[in-house]
């Protein structure tokens, strides 16, 4: 019998159960979720897409990700920072993305804040990775009641507060914990998932910016 949160496939390999929830998830689960990221453009994209997810299912955002990339110039934040009202109007007519004005405005605002942060510190990645939690701070991934809820952590609370202080929006503690999971700052593949050990290896080999 599978442990809670885990599913064994026909080949005998065990994965996090959510991997089976949609056709798009196996690739995302196996090759992307939890892989450490140090590229500023990719990190800005992840922050924005996690913000768009607020109140929605992640699969909705994942299915629209390529349209989001096309709409926001590949999430080049220096380009998005130049957007004005005409761009907001254009994006509100784009059926390929989530047409939520507040979230679109937030994406533009956060692009400007990203420019400021990079100009000040030299790297969005370096600034974000400074919030990587110590081992003792990380929640136990075997705690399914925690993992399947709306998790936060002391580190995600600190990150959220620091970003909000800099004027970023749609960066609450839960959203920032999802970012930390997605960018490899924490490894929340469950114990028993075949990907957990692989991600741990990548995290050990990863050169922090």
Automatic annotation (TrEMBL):
Domain of life of the source: Bacteria
An annotated GO BP: base-excision repair
Alphabetized GO MF terms: DNA-3-methyladenine glycosylase activity; metal ion binding
Ligand binding (Zn(2+)): 16, 29, 189, 193
InterPro entries attached to this UniProt entry: Adenine_glyco, DNA-3mA_glycosylase, DNA_glycosylase
Pfam families, sorted: Adenine_glyco (PF03352)
PANTHER family reported for this sequence: DNA-3-METHYLADENINE GLYCOSYLASE 1, DNA-3-METHYLADENINE GLYCOSYLASE I
Annotated protein name in UniProt: DNA-3-methyladenine glycosylase I
Organism, as annotated: Pseudomonas poae
């Amino acid at each position: 019998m599978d442990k809670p949160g885990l599913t064994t496939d026909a080949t005998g390999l065990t994965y996090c159960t959510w991997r089976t929830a949609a056709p798009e998830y196996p690739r995302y689960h196996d090759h992307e979720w939890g892989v450490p990221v140090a590229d500023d453009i990719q990190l800005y994209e992840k922050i924005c897409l996690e913000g768009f997810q607020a109140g929605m299912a992640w699969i909705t955002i994942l299915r629209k990700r390529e349209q989001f990339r096309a709409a926001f110039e590949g999430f080049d934040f220096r380009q998005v920072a130049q957007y004005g009202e005409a761009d907001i109007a254009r994006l509100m007519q784009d059926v390929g993305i989530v047409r939520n004005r507040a979230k679109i405005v937030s994406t533009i605002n956060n692009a400007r804040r990203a420019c400021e942060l990079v100009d000040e510190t030299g790297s969005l990645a370096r600034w974000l990775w400074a919030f990587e939690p110590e081992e003792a701070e990380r929640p136990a991934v075997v705690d399914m009641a925690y993992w399947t809820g709306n998790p936060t952590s002391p580190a995600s609370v600190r990150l959220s507060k620091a970003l909000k202080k800099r004027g970023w929006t749609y960066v609450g503690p839960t959203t920032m914990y999802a970012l930390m999971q997605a960018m490899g700052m924490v490894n929340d593949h469950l114990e028993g998932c075949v990907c957990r050990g692989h991600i741990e290896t990548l995290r050990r080999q990863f050169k922090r910016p």
